Amino acid sequence: MSARAQETAPELSRRRTALILAASVAVVVFVVGVAGLVGEFLNTRDVIRRAPAYFIHSMYSSGTRLDRVPFVRPEWADAFAAPDRREYVSPLGGPGEAARRLETYLRLPDWLAPKEPTAVVILGACDERAVPVLARALQDADETVRACAADSLGNLGDLGVRTSAAVPALARASVDEDEHVRYFAATALGKVPDNPSGAVPALARALGDRKAQVRFAAARALCMLNAKAEAAVPSLAKALEDGNPMVRIYAAATLAKIGPAVAAAIPALERAAEEDLDQGARAAAAAALSKIRAGPGEPQD
User: Fold this and answer.
1) pLDDT value at 297 more than 70
2) Is 176 a domain residue?
3) Domain encompassing residue 124
4) DSSP H helices in 108-263
5) Does residue 5 lie within any of the structural domains?
6) How many other β-carbons are positioned within 10 Å of the β-carbon of residue 299?
């Protein structure tokens, strides 16, 4: 054996040892990583499965008849005292981490991660990272998931999260084939004050919805936008003749908030103040007229 061969033999041995160690470390890291991902998935799925009640509570609070909601699970029927959805965010690592984990869960195939609507509900207690996830969920094939996504975007608005990026998706959802989706989409649009140009036209259109519950949600949402609802004045004037007194009351209240731009609606308000059969609607119209005529007060932003 040559001297050179004798000199390189220890090097080859050391190199083989180093390669074996590196491969072993890589395998350990891979196994640990996979175990971590599996553990994260199982934990996420467990949290989702422990939170089945909130959607039903939300639907119940909105006035929807549970016996007319075909996708309600029977075992949820008594779950009216639903907990705050935020308590399911902490076990997932907080708002930001929960949004990431739930987004990953919702991207998995259905055979591995069934699209539980409550996964979308929990996103409603996360932060701005949940907004694009919920906007995509508004296009889900399951109407329950779509309704939960719209409801969650509204809840994020209540929490002060900027949801303006989801306005185009919410506007499309406001004409969804499912009335519950339309209701929650209209409600959520009233909680995006920084994007009235996208929200107001959709809400004005929703005032003509065939379902009174959706028209009510649209009128209430416009009232929440205050003076920013100015573009909806013609639709609000027409809504003063709606068959639902709550729609008429909210329409009058919104016109009162807008200011001088409601001049074209004054005749309709006068008729409502004199002729409406509902005492509350008459009072709302009269109050709106009084405020408008007292002008030129500052419109509410």
Assistant:
1) no
2) yes
3) 40-192
4) 117-123, 131-137, 143-158, 167-173, 179-189, 196-206, 212-225, 233-239, 245-258
5) no
6) 17
pLDDT per position as a tens digit, 122-132: 999 999 999 99
Asked if the structure places residue 137 within a domain, the reply is yes
Q: Which residue has the tokens 């909601």?
A: 69
In a domain, 79, yes or no: yes
State the total domains in the chain.
1
pLDDT band at 110 (very low <50, low <70, confident <90, very high): confident
Residue 292 neighbours by CB under 8 Å, 6+ apart: 255, 256, 259, 260, 262, 266, 269
CATH of the domain at 166: 1.25.10
- The whole-angstrom distance between residue 26's C-alpha and the CA centroid of its chain comes to 42
3-state SS, one letter per residue, for 154-172: HHHHHCCCCCHHHHHHHHH
- Cα-Cα-Cα-Cα torsion 194, 191, 103, 180, nearest 10 degrees, comes to -140
Give the type of residue at 40.
Answer: E
